[in-house]
Design a protein that fits this description.
Radius of gyration: 18 Å
Number of strands: 8
Order of helices and strands: EHEHEEHEEEHHEHHH
Number of helices: 8
Shape: globular
Largest sheet: 6 strands, mixed
């Protein structure tokens, strides 16, 4: 609600919560374009429902606990798109990790060309071209529990053919206490499956990527200064 860009359509999808979430949402009902509150099959089912409801040119998915990094994020993104002279299929940028302990330094996004390795940005820092998604029939695969966003991005990069815009700005602060950060082993397994299904990678190549990913996670946990130095390289 604090964004200084006026043309935003807010779509809220809630899984029939009974914890006070709906009551909180209703306080902002006058600002909402669409409110869906009903039982669903999980996070990605809810996000697919949101995708079906959007009316704008671009969509970004925020989960409860996530937020934009500042009040002018959306207006800056719009200006980047206008300055590019075309309509990218995907626009993305940097992010910060957020927890009860505070916010991390800005984490630079990677080149989308490195998606074979892993996520190039947090999904909270990715704007998708709605028309492109609908034309290609792309949405979240509900057979994935926590890596459907990675699979979707693999498909977007595959079909976008370079029509992607990386911007040098921090877009979001995302809550690292979410499901994907607490189920890293499952995340590795599902990411491996996505590489096989979308990219057709061989077992040898996929195993090598998993090994590198495990080393990176070890460094992040136990050798964080070295990891951050390496991670800051785009």
């Amino acid at each position: 609600m604090d964004q200084d860009y006026p043309y935003i359509d807010y779509v809220i999808v809630d899984g029939a919560s009974t914890d006070g979430t709906k009551e909180c949402i209703y306080r902002y009902e006058a600002f909402l374009g669409t409110l869906i509150s009903e039982p669903d099959k999980g996070i990605y089912d809810a996000m697919n429902k949101g995708l079906q409801a959007v009316k704008g040119n671009y969509v970004l998915f925020m989960n409860s606990g996530d937020c934009f990094s500042d009040q002018s994020v959306v207006s800056k993104i719009v200006n980047y798109i206008k300055s590019s002279g075309y309509f990218p299929e995907l626009v993305y940028g940097d992010y910060r990790e957020s927890s009860v302990e505070g916010k991390s330094p800005i984490i630079p996004s990677r080149s989308y060309k490195k998606i074979w390795y892993g996520a190039f940005a947090s999904h909270q820092s990715i704007f998708y071209n709605c028309q492109f998604l609908k034309e290609k029939g792309l949405k979240y695969d509900l057979s994935y529990q926590i890596a459907a966003d990675y699979k979707l991005n693999l498909e977007v990069v595959k079909y976008a053919k370079g029509n992607i815009l990386q911007v040098p700005m921090c877009i979001s602060d995302f809550d690292i206490t979410g499901i994907s950060n607490n189920n890293q082993a499952l995340g590795l397994t599902e990411a491996d499956r996505a590489r096989k299904e979308v990219l057709g990678m061989s077992l040898l190549v996929r195993t090598s990527i998993i090994l590198v990913s495990c080393i990176a996670r070890f460094m992040k946990k136990y050798l964080n200064p070295i990891y951050r130095t390496l991670r800051m390289k785009r």
